[in-house]
Write a structure and sequence with these properties.
Length: 185
């Protein structure tokens, strides 16, 4: 398996990049964080995963080992292929995804194109035990989800709702957090 590549970025695409490693150009589909890490012309190092099927060998690139680890875990879930796993990782940090799985936050996964309610339930159910204990950051998980879900019901996307709530005091009750997030918008 090709576990990592270090080379110079020679081309950027919407879904990845071409990395020149000693004269060989590797097409690597990447997460958004890895794509942001890659500035044209400079040398970068990416953690990679080589996905092998009957008809294709495809490299996937990650900004950090934690992304690759989660990618491999997502692939172990029935109904999640490499493109969906990359989409999941591109929308959130590994820490946020681990936290969402620990909290059984299916809403975060349903918001990703290509994932329905049953697949989101499978992701949470199958990966919760595999991840082990996750630091939830000291805040009340249920209240955090109530406030976020209220903003989603009002038309916010999951990431927009989380950004709006991040600017509000987490010690407030969920209703007040929603009110303040709406005022700030």
């Amino acid at each position: 398996m090709i576990a990592s590549l270090r080379g110079r970025v020679v081309a950027r695409r919407l879904d990845g990049l071409v990395l020149d490693v000693n004269g060989v150009g590797y097409l690597v589909q990447t997460t958004q964080r890895a794509l942001r890490k890659a500035q044209g012309g400079e040398e970068i190092s990416l953690d990679t995963y080589l996905h092998v099927r009957e008809d294709v060998l495809q490299l996937y690139g990650f900004a950090e080992p934690a992304e690759r680890e989660l990618f491999e875990l997502f692939l172990s879930v029935s109904g999640v292929g490499p493109k969906v796993a990359i989409a999941i990782l591109s929308g959130s940090t590994p820490t946020d995804l681990r936290r969402a799985i620990a909290l059984a936050d299916e809403t975060r996964f349903v918001a990703i194109p290509g994932i329905g309610k049953k697949t989101a339930q499978r992701i949470v159910l199958e990966l919760k035990e595999k991840l082990g204990p996750v630091d939830l950051g000291g805040e009340s998980p249920a209240q955090e989800l109530v406030a976020r879900d209220a903003l989603v019901e009002l038309g916010y996307s999951v990431p927009e709702a989380e950004r709006a709530l991040a600017a509000v005091d987490p010690e407030l009750p969920p209703e007040e957090r929603v009110r303040q997030a709406l005022r700030a918008a």
